[in-house]
Amino acid sequence: MKKIKNLYIVLIGLAAGVMTSCESKLDQSPISSLGSNGFYQNEADFIKALSGVYNGLNAYPINHFELSEVRSDNIYTPGTAGVRDYNLINNFNTNLATAGIMNSTWNGLYNNIMRANTIVDKLSADVVADDNTRTRIEGETKFLRALYYFDLVRFYGKVPLFDRPVTPLEALEIPRSPVTDVYDLIIADLQFAIANLPDEYSSATDLGRATSHAARGLLARVYMTRSGTQLHPDGPVLGTNEWSQALTLLDQIINSGQFDLVDSYADIFAYDNENNEEIVFDIQFLSGGQGVGGEYVQYHYPEAFARTNGIPFAGGTFPDAPKTVSADLMASYPSEDVRDDFSVWINYDDGNGNITQDRFIKKYLDLDNLGVDRFDFELNFPVIRYADILLMKAEALSKSGGSQSAIDAIVNEIRNRAGITAPVANVTYDQIMEERRREFIGEGLRWHDLVRSGMAIDVMLDWIAEEDAANKISTDITSDDLIYAVPINQLDVKEGLYEQNPGY
């Protein structure tokens, strides 16, 4: 019976309303004290429960920094001892099944999916009579469920597929589903969201809610991920050649006229300019004490820097394991490019009068906007922004034989905003991916881009040969490394229910 209880906790979740310490601007009132059978009595109950599903996004910036940015050629963090989870990720360690972040990411995503499934299951005209409100709640819920499943597929490949609430005993009989089956649910959920969500909201209280354009942007990213070069038989890339489907969605966003590039790159991330015209979908955070802000900012800066610069309850990375922005990435920025100076802090006082040579991502940090502690940064985190929509279009055009002049125009628009006035012509696919690397530094996209493009193995091996001065990163990188290990406690729940991914 103990194993069944563990599975219930891991796969199905503790309760629909259990909240973490980090809350978004959406209503986050706990609902865990009420069972799901008795809770959903009216529209307000569903809105409150939906806030619980949004609340699961608080881990998104951390997961994608640790499992995408740190995994890539953007960050070098071998660690002195090499025992931190993020060191193991950076070093392509094969023992990741026991790493805490593998377990917390899997658990968190399934907890969020359980909450979403419960809402979809309970939602009916009997309790939410207004058709528009009911379909909007369902659309938002399915958008979030699709996002969580997309993360699972990108991180783990095949995963158990739950599209409804199940009992612990039922869960014991549900194996990992093929990636294609998981994608079927993701695509259906996003298509529903596109059809039933508004393009935008008129009320300030609805800031941060999913829109039809957010669903289009995410579905375009899904189609492009599926369409890339398949190197792993059970990974997220299928070689489906769905570039035209992605282009249709991207053009709908672009032609809406609702979004634009912010004039200044720095203003995208300004604390007084949140929800600006570049944001297609972001995660809302606020400051106010008692752990209501965003913790993700402290995952970038070193602890010594925090202490010397007055960040309360400093936090930050450990002295034996800084997350150093790679020399290769820094060298890729043209001299007039403003993005590196804004995004990366170079050199700081370690508190003992020594100026270090370390580099860390600072694009989310504003020392004039500190909360009460390291969990209390209020800056929203961008999941999809308009620059990504444009560069995804350039990539899809490049892959599908589209207009070269359109590709060049997009890339030059992005570069011009970054302060690079000299135009480029005949932009290649590799150049598009490098421009994405510079534009989205620290936004958790780089590893996903490398996997989608089929470039991950070659790029990482070349980068390791140049960058790994500590000689700690494995050079035995194969297609097995394109997805992560299934957490060991999942394998232990019921023998034979899941198999470990090859290479771990």
UniProtKB/TrEMBL annotation:
Coiled coil region boundaries: none
Domain SusD-like N-terminal span(s) in chain numbering: 27-224
Chief localisation class: membrane
Highest taxon of the lineage: Bacteria
Ranges for domain RagB/SusD: 360-504
Pfam family, one: SusD-like_3
Keywords on record: Cell outer membrane, Membrane, Signal
InterPro entries from the UniProt entry: SusD-like_N (IPR033985), SusD_RagB_dom (IPR012944), TPR-like_helical_dom_sf (IPR011990)
Signal peptide positions (record): none
Localization in the cell: Cell outer membrane
CDD domains, per database record: SusD (cd08977)
PROSITE patterns documented for this protein: PROKAR_LIPOPROTEIN (PS51257)
Family classification: Belongs to the SusD family.
Protein name as it appears in the record: RagB/SusD family nutrient uptake outer membrane protein
